[in-house]
Amino acid sequence: MLSRRGFVAQLPLAAAAARILPEMAWAQRAAVNMSGLPKDMVWLNANENPAGPPPVSLDAMREALPASGRYHYNEMGGFYAAMAKSEELSPEQMITGSGSSEVLHTAVDAFTSSTRPLISVTPAYEGPIELARALGRPVVLTKLREDYTADVKRMAEEADKAHGGLIYLCNPNNPTSAVVKSKDVDWLVNNLPANSILLVDEAYIHFVETPDVQSALPYVRQGKEVIVARTFSKIYGMAGLRVGFAAARPDIIARLSPLRMNVISYVSARAVVAALGDQQSILRDRKASLARTRRELCAWLRQREVRFIEPHANFIMIDVARNAREFINTMPRLGVAPGRPFPPLDNMLRVSIGTDADMAKFRDVFWKVYKG
Ligand SMILES: Cc1ncc(COP(=O)(O)O)c(C=O)c1O
User: Fold this and answer.
1) Average pLDDT, whole number, for the chain?
2) Which of 6, 204, 312, 330 has CA 20 to 30 A from 293's CA?
3) Residue 286 belongs to what domain range?
4) What pLDDT, on the 0 to 100 scale, is given for residue 11?
């Protein structure tokens, strides 16, 4: 039996072990429980980009690899400068991390406390929420509105009630793929209670087509109490390279900086710099291609009168009209892995948008299970 003293002695270790796990870690966790998976499994469970890193990034990494025996810390200044320039920020307004997971981690650690909660919606991306819980910080989860969007007024009320907190807004939200319109984000930024900071997770912002939604980066440039998290894991197809960044006012970045583990891999940094050199065309082409595949899937679902939440990211939430666990358990054996369960949306199945061939197989397998 664990004595109280033993338990207390273990607390710092437990807190130190708490890390924001990126989506793939979750996916692997689910996968290890299943045996006999087909070799040509279509993975639609982690919102990755099947296009992978752009060719310019692959070339840059091949060139960088032989020199990876050295630290290359001296390259990080140039790397920051290139990243900052790509978003019209100064290097002091940014911090990079091992995926956006690391910068989200630092934000939760720095701006929640035993009295200042993390405030979000349910369901939202679990990483920051689980970390706050593991660190013993209070967590307040508000309900989504009827249209599956976040209720920004409720979130502000909760921050006010707690005399301050960190509001985590994932836009588009994972897992719903729904968005909060710019006018609502604007209201929130301008009505943040005292001692509150808004953390906007824009992991999927590049996939948004509607003009009603814009990035929150302009608020950073205006010096507001806003942190924006971005990642190279999604539209840039670099999930395995682990690069993300947070943008915020320099004094906010200074609070995040000491909580970071280290610099990112120099091979990954080279891949990012190469991609940023061709940023416009990479983003334009990938967004157009994803949007087309997404539109086709939505049309197919509509034809069959299968309901879904209007998607704005590279994944979609499908209402399977019964507990989605049946699909989550059955589909992998038929060669397609969908997302994990997302309570309280128990009848919803999250499916990442893959290649056209992936989605053809998805439609086949999904329909078989749907028809029973
Ligand atoms: C909304 C959101 N934020 C952050 C992450 C973390 O991703 P990464 O650490 O690869 O940037 C994910 C992963 O899927 C995500 O869905």
Assistant:
1) 92
2) 330
3) 22-47+280-371
4) 45
CA 50 to chain centre: 16
Domain membership of residue 13 (yes or no) is no
Do residues 219 and 340 both lie within one domain? no
Sorted by sequence, the CB contacts under 8 Å of residue 361 that are 6+ apart come out as 42, 335, 336
CB-based contact 169:200 (threshold 8 Å): yes
- The pLDDT of residue 33 is 55
Q: Does one domain contain both 130 and 157? A: yes
CATH of the domain at 119: 3.40.640.10
Nearest to 107 by CA among 244, 312, 273: 244
Q: Which amino acid is at 266?
A: Y
Asked whether residue 14 is domain-assigned, the answer is no
Q: Determine if ligand 1 sits within 6 Å of the CB of residue 176.
A: no
Q: Is the pLDDT of residue 13 over 50?
A: no
**Cα–ligand 1 centroid distance for 76 (angstroms):** 23
CATH number for the domain harbouring residue 310: 3.90.1150.10
| HSE value, Cβ hemisphere, 13 Å, CA-based, for 126 | 16
Q: What is the pTM of this model?
A: 0.93
| CB of 23 closer than 6 angstroms to any ligand 1 atom | yes
352 CB within 6 A, ligand 1: no
DSSP state at residue 313: S
**Other beta carbons within 10 Å of 43:** 17
> Each residue of 153-164: pLDDT tens digit?
999 999 999 999
Q: Is the pLDDT assigned to residue 35 strictly greater than 80? A: no
Ligand 1 centre to CA of 21 (Å) is 8
* Separation of CA 102 and ligand 1 centre (Å): 10
